[in-house]
Amino acid sequence: MPVRHLRISGVRNLQPLVIDPHPHVNFIYGDNGSGKTSILEAIAVMASGKSFRTSQLKHVLSHDHDRMEMRVGLSDPDLGECDMESLRLKSGDHLLKLNGSVLTSQAEAAHWLPVQIIEPNTFKLLSGSPEERRAFIDWGVFHVEHTFMDQWKTFRKHLKQRNAVLKQKEAEWLDVWNDGFIESAEAIDAQRRAYLSRFKPEFERILKQLDPEIGVSLAYYPGWEKDSKLADVMQRQQERDMVLGYTQSGPHRAELRIKCDKQPAAEILSRGQQKTVVAALKIAQGALFQQESKRSTIYLVDDLASELDEKHRFALCRLLEELKCQVFITSIDKEKLTDVWKPVASKVFHVEHGNLNEETPNE
Predict the structure, then answer these.
(1) What pTM did the predictor assign?
(2) 242-256: b or e for each residue (b if 16 or more CB lie within 10 Å)?
(3) Whose CB has fewer CB within 10 Å in the chain, the N or C terminal residue?
(4) Structural domain of residue 25, as residue ranges?
(5) What is the pLDDT of residues 276-288, one digit of tens each?
C-alpha cells in the first residue's frame, strides 16, 4: 500500500509541501530541527490519529496556522487506489475523508494505511506500560482479523457498564453484564493467542537475522489467572471488584511479557540491544501482515543512525529491502543512510528550514 502522493500543510515548522514518494525507499536527511521527522509524523497522524512525538495533537499544528491539512494518495493491488484527506483545526475539530466520503472511524484510515514506526522512543515497547504492548498485539490482530474491532467495541461496552454497576454497588445487576463481558473477552483472547502463535516464530527468525546473540522469549498473559476460566476468576473476585469499583481481570489487563533469561528484557539488555529487539518486533509484525494479507506495511524509520550501529543498520535495511515495502527513513547524515543501504529503487530528499527538496541521482 505505497503512498504515491503526499501533501502536507500546517504541520510544525514544515513549509507546505507536495511530493511523489518512491514506492520503495525514501531517504530524508537534514539537520536537527529541519522538519524531516515532521514528515513521518504527519503520515503517522493520518494512519492512526496519533503522533509518536506528543500525546496532544495541538502541538503538531504549526504556530502560524489555524489548521493542519494532509492528503495522501494510496495505491494497492487489491484494494485499488484512493485519496485520503485529514483536516484538523486548532479548535480540535477533525474531518477525515476517503475518496471524498467522510470516515466516521479512524480504524478505516488505519486499514488503508498500515504503518509501522521505528523511532528513538520505540524501545519503550520493552520498558513502557503493558498498554503499549497490548496495542502492539492488537495492531497485528486488527489487520488480519476482520471481526476484531467489533469484538473490541462490544467488550469495551460491557466493561464500561460492568464498572458502572460496580461503582454504584448494584450487585443484582452484575449478572446482566457478566455473560456478555465474558463472551467478548474470551473471543478477544482467542484471537490474540492465535495471532501470537503465528507471530512468535516470525519474530524469532527476524531477531536471529538482526542479532543472533540476543536471546529473547515472548510470553502472553491473558489478563487473568493463566490456567483458570475467566468466569471462575470473576466469581472469586466479584466482592473485591465491588470494593474497588472496577473490573480487575479481563483482556484490558493482558500483557505481552518480553524476557531474557527469565527476567524482563528491559532490565537485562543494553539500550542498543533493546532497540534491536524492538526493530525485530516491528519488522516481524510487518512481515507477518504481508504474508497473511498479501499487502505491505509502510515503515517510518526516524533517525536511523542514532538508533543502531552500522552492523545493525545494515541488517535492518536488508530485511526491509527483502519485504519490498515502502520505507520513509530519516537521518542527519546522508551518507549514513545511503552507505549502508544502496537499493536501486529509491529517492533522496533534503530538508532545510522546513523546506523539502528532492535531489537528483548522484547529487
Answers:
(1) 0.92
(2) beeeebbbbbbebbb
(3) C
(4) 1-114+299-363
(5) 999 999 999 999 9
